[in-house]
Write a structure and sequence with these properties.
heterodimer; A: 290 residues; mainly alpha; 2 strands; 74% helix; 3% strand; B: 235 residues; alpha/beta; Rossmann fold; 2 domains; binds adenosine-5'-triphosphate; binds magnesium ion
């Protein structure tokens, strides 16, 4: 069996584009885990809420960029409130407690979306409708744009982490929460802030994804699951690892869809997950502790 | 300035502090001695708000501080140098120091001053300012841990076994730093295994046994009375 080179290249572009949106979702998830040891099972539902907030804003204003901004800000504030009211009191408890709490939040958010916006999908109008020739395909510029924007958001956040007072607060809290608080860093607020940033990143993914796959009230679980796999493969709490794993898994899925149906290609991510758990349980990019 | 009265602390179900009472006056160096596992570190953690006492009072400058968040205590003038140093390993030396500098009421000029001061006292930290904290040697990490606490301009430093595992030359440096802080009128509550050093630098000394303060004397008295030291510490 031989696969033409142009198809492989097309799937490479597809894999990179899908990988960058996934990386944006997974970054928030891994960040939240890294700093407060909470696996946020409602993360995909923040993607969904971001998507709906964007869709509603576009319906009212017709402006995609404004919708992206509004969704990010609204969901970041919502995320901060959610963290301060439901997760902060559970800090340091058994992981099962926070898993149950975030799972509960996930259910509530889904039912709210169903009640508020109904069961049918909403499509967001892309801000850019042009296409370019990619071998035998007309490839939409918008898909490329989503990858570039996702990369820009992640890159911007990375710069924020590297430079300045808040970046130091976040990194210090990630490394040693207790020592950070003893040095005068307001750790409870750092947690809230990081959750807000993660929620904002999730909302951005929701809006960016809207024109590609539509927004539905039950889209969250799929995002949570895929991002969770990426975070485990990349090493829980490892930002760079998650980004790399998101791209790796998306590329493998894209290539797999050359030989099997796209629905079957999804299995690839589970295979990668299982192999990682078997051979490098702390993730591909964290040295296995001896 | 710092007063503990009948402080009780638990870890889960184990009762660790069984009613600890002690006090530290402004600018005073107070030693806290005791065998392994008697609760010295737990006493410091309780003061710093890292574990919550189940009973008794912890007062700082007349105010009850039991249950206050550690970051507020850090702003109020308490600093903690833990026994395992707890350097932020992935932060640079400079960033480690900055964790204590970005607090309310700080000006750029004051930040500069504080940094210049520790770099003058610890030239090795200035040399390594852009290096990750985790790459420093044990002695350098201890310097950094103390320097980092000094960034808070504390009124009292809770210093937990600063000479543990250090070479004699480094121990000498720690002794100098303690003397220096003493001259700056910073109070120190010093937990140590090194008895001669403690008797040397302290004004007063408390001796703990199984979660309680069992003996209290001036350092001068203890220097003259080795029987007490032998009785409680076996040295
Ligand atoms: N996090 C914890 N959970 C449960 N027990 C603890 C914890 N930390 C300390 N302990 C126990 O509390 C007791 C007192 O510990 P602490 O660290 O205060 O002793 P210490 O006097 O500082 O001893 P050392 O000289 O060895 O440092 C010990 O028996 C220890 O095993
Ligand atoms: Mg100790």
């Amino acid at each position: 069996m031989s696969i033409p080179l142009d198809q492989i290249l097309i799937q490479t572009v597809n894999g990179l584009v899908n990988g960058m949106i996934l990386a944006l979702v997974a970054s928030g998830l891994t960040l939240i885990f890294g700093i407060m040891d909470v696996v946020n099972f409602a993360h995909g539902d923040l993607v969904m809420l971001g998507g709906f907030t964007g869709a509603v804003t576009i319906a009212a204003t017709g402006n995609f960029w404004l919708a992206l901004l509004v969704a990010v800000l609204v969901i970041a504030v919502f995320g901060a409130a959610l963290q301060a009211t439901t997760l902060r009191p559970l800090l340091g408890r058994d992981p099962l407690t926070t898993i149950l709490a975030t799972f509960g939040i996930s259910l509530v958010l889904q039912k709210y979306a169903l009640w508020q916006w109904g069961p049918s999908a909403r499509r967001i109008q892309e801000p850019l409708t042009g296409q370019f020739q990619l071998f035998y395909l007309q490839y939409p510029w918008y898909r490329v744009l989503t990858a570039v924007l996702s990369a820009a958001i992640i890159g911007g956040f990375w710069l924020f982490l590297r430079h300045g007072k808040y970046g130091i607060w976040i990194r210090a809290t990630m490394q040693d929460r207790i020592m950070a608080s003893a040095m005068g860093i307001p750790v409870p607020w750092v947690h809230t802030g990081v959750f807000a940033i993660g929620a904002g990143m999730a909302a951005a993914s929701g809006v960016l994804f809207g024109p590609l796959g539509g927004v539905t009230q039950n889209m969250g679980l799929d995002f949570t699951l895929r991002a969770f796999i990426v975070v485990v493969v990349g090493g829980m709490g490892n930002l760079g690892g998650s980004i790399f794993a998101a791209i790796l898994i998306s590329l493998l899925e894209a290539y797999a869809s050359l030989v099997v149906s796209p629905a079957q290609a999804v299995i690839v991510s589970f295979v990668v997950l299982i192999l990682t758990l078997l051979f490098r349980p702390t993730g591909l990019f964290v040295p296995t502790p001896k | 300035m710092l007063t503990l009265t009948e402080v009780h602390t638990y870890y889960g179900k184990s009762h660790i502090l069984l009613g600890v009472s002690l006090e530290v006056q402004p600018g005073e160096v107070v030693g806290l001695l005791g065998r392994n596992g008697v609760g010295k570190s737990t006493t410091l953690k309780t003061i710093m708000g890292l574990v919550r006492p189940s009973g008794g009072h912890v007062r700082f400058e007349g105010r009850e501080i039991a249950g206050t968040a550690p970051h507020r205590l850090a702003h109020a003038g308490l600093a903690w140098v833990p026994e395992d140093r707890r350097i932020f390993r992935l932060l640079t030396v400079m960033e480690n120091l900055r964790t204590g500098l970005d607090r309310p009421g700080m000006t750029e000029a004051r930040r500069r001053e504080l940094l210049d001061k520790v770099y003058a006292h610890f030239p090795v930290l200035a040399e390594r300012r852009s290096q990750a904290g985790g790459t420093l040697s044990g002695g350098e990490q201890q310097m950094l841990a103390i320097a980092r606490a000094m960034m808070l301009e504390p009124k009292i430093i809770l210093l937990d076994e600063p000479t543990e595992g250090l070479m004699p030359r480094m121990v000498g440096q720690i002794r100098e730093i303690i003397t220096l802080l003493h001259q700056d009128r910073v109070a120190i509550l010093l937990v140590e295994q090194n008895v001669p050093l403690t008797l040397d630098v302290s004004d007063r000394v408390y001796i703990m046994e199984k979660g309680l303060v069992r003996h209290h004397a001036t350092a001068a008295e203890l220097r003259a009375d080795h029987a007490v030291i032998h009785q409680y510490l076996g040295v």
